[in-house]
Write a sequence for this structure.
């Protein structure tokens, strides 16, 4: 077993490599899509002579496409299969980026970004699903962290490339160049095997066994996994029916939806889409705006490591409490500085530091943790449906945030806009206390049992002994630790 694990050429190494590559590239595309527009808007606005309102549409049409893509992705990944859905997603991604680079009018740009969105909606649903089905159990957790890390790296790369092209003001290159990683992703996908679970769902048992044998390099292991999958498939996915019939499932779906609304209304994407504009409001010239935006991207990447390091030690709730508090303070102070007026260099730097503090708050908490919680709280029978609903919500809420920021700035002013988001973070802190369960070190089966037994949502991560004997929550935590 050990010799197998340490041999560099063993097939299981190849699996890990393939799945890592897919996680990396799918996350990277997600990040590129989010990050690429921020540096381009001012040049697009100049060339097409369009209002802030049209810019909001160009920004948020991508999220509209993503919401639609995420809705259709469940059906597509079940009928076409995971791999073919991802290939379709990658083709749309390449087409969307090339069309945005070549766009001849604001309308074409909106259409191109809807196409990009469709691609990313499909990929954000299908890639984690494929990963969970192909990766071995012991690397599954690492895959989720790697995926979020790559989202942040994608955003950073987009910010840096935007900065490089900002000197010539060439927004077409900014938007078009992301077709290159898209093409790499597409080529990489052809090397991947079909998901063994999907093959089993289609009754293609022999092919599933062959894939697993190739991936794991061990016939016994493959046979065991095939038997496990067969067992799991006896619990058919019947999300919509379960949703209509079962109140407890409606609660977990509602929780997933609420979690994603919370993630988006922290205001993170306001900074991701409009950072240069925010730095402009702080009094910075164009090149400083772009460089500070790149610093925002780098801070986002680095602070994600805090979450990776802490998530299994502190647990989800303490990290979320810290994150929401840090975000509320950071944004509250940005608003206050804008209200008082930013006149000196020192005041500018302080305001930038507060914005970066906000980014750290998000990246160490809500960024990765909300995605993890959204899949942990759903029962097996309704997992695809539940995750589909929360992913869809992520994009709709993302669109609302992107489509309203400039209107808010122009309507209530920049200070009040940041205070509004700071206040929302305080509300989310309270919600985290009241509603969010602690899922650290609890098996998914236990969470499901607690949910279906009707325990309050914040208790569904309780240890078994505490549930059956009616111990207090604190006692349950003691037992769990
Ligand atoms: C969110 C994205 C956000 C990104 C920032 C993700 O978890 O879902 O909306 O842009 O984090 O790093």
């Amino acid at each position: 077993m050990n010799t197998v694990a340490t041999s560099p050429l063993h097939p299981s190494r190849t699996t890990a490599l393939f799945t890592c590559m897919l996680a990396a590239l799918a996350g990277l595309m997600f990040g590129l899509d989010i990050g690429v527009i921020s540096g381009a808007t001012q040049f697009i606005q100049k060339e097409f002579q369009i209002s802030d309102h049209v810019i909001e549409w160009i920004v948020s049409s991508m999220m509209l496409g993503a919401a639609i893509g995420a809705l259709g992705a469940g059906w597509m990944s079940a009928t076409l299969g995971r791999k073919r859905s991802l290939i379709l997603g990658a083709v749309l991604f390449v087409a969307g980026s090339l069309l945005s680079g070549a766009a001849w009018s604001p309308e074409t740009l909106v259409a191109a970004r809807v196409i990009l969105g469709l691609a990313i909606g499909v990929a954000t649903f299908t890639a984690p699903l494929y990963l969970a089905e192909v990766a071995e159990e012991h690397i599954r957790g690492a895959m989720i962290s790697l995926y979020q890390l790559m989202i942040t790296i994608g955003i950073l790369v987009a910010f840096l490339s935007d900065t490089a092209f900002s000197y010539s003001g060439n927004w077409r290159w900014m938007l078009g160049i992301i077709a290159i990683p898209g093409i790499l992703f597409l080529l990489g996908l052809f090397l991947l095997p079909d998901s063994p679970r999907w093959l089993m769902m289609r009754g293609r048992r022999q092919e599933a066994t062959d894939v697993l044998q190739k991936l794991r390099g061990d016939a016994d292991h493959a046979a065991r996994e095939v038997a496990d999958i067969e067992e799991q498939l006896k619990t058919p996915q019947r999300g919509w029916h379960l949703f209509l019939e079962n109140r407890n499932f409606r609660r977990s779906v509602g929780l997933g939806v609420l979690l994603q609304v919370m993630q988006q209304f922290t205001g993170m994407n306001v900074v991701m889409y409009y950072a240069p504009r925010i730095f402009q409001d702080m009094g910075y010239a164009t090149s400083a705006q772009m460089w500070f935006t790149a610093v925002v991207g780098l801070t986002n990447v680095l602070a994600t490591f805090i979450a990776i390091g802490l998530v299994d030690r502190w647990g989800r709730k303490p990290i979320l409490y810290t994150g929401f508090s840090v975000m509320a303070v950071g944004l509250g102070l940005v608003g206050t500085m804008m209200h008082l007026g930013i006149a000196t260099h020192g005041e500018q730097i302080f305001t930038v530091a507060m914005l970066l503090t906000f980014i750290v708050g998000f990246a160490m908490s809500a960024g990765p943790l909300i995605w993890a919680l959204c899949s942990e709280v759903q029962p097996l029978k309704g997992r695809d449906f539940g995750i589909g609903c929360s992913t869809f919500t992520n994009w709709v809420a993302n669109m609302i945030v992107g489509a309203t920021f400039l209107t808010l700035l122009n309507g209530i002013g920049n200070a009040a806009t940041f205070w509004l988001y700071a206040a929302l973070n305080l509300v989310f802190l309270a919600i985290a206390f009241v509603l969010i369960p602690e899922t650290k070190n609890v098996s998914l089966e236990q969470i499901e049992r607690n949910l279906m037994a009707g325990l309050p949502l914040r208790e569904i991560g309780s240890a078994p002994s505490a549930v059956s004997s009616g111990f207090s929550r604190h006692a349950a935590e003691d037992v769990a630790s």
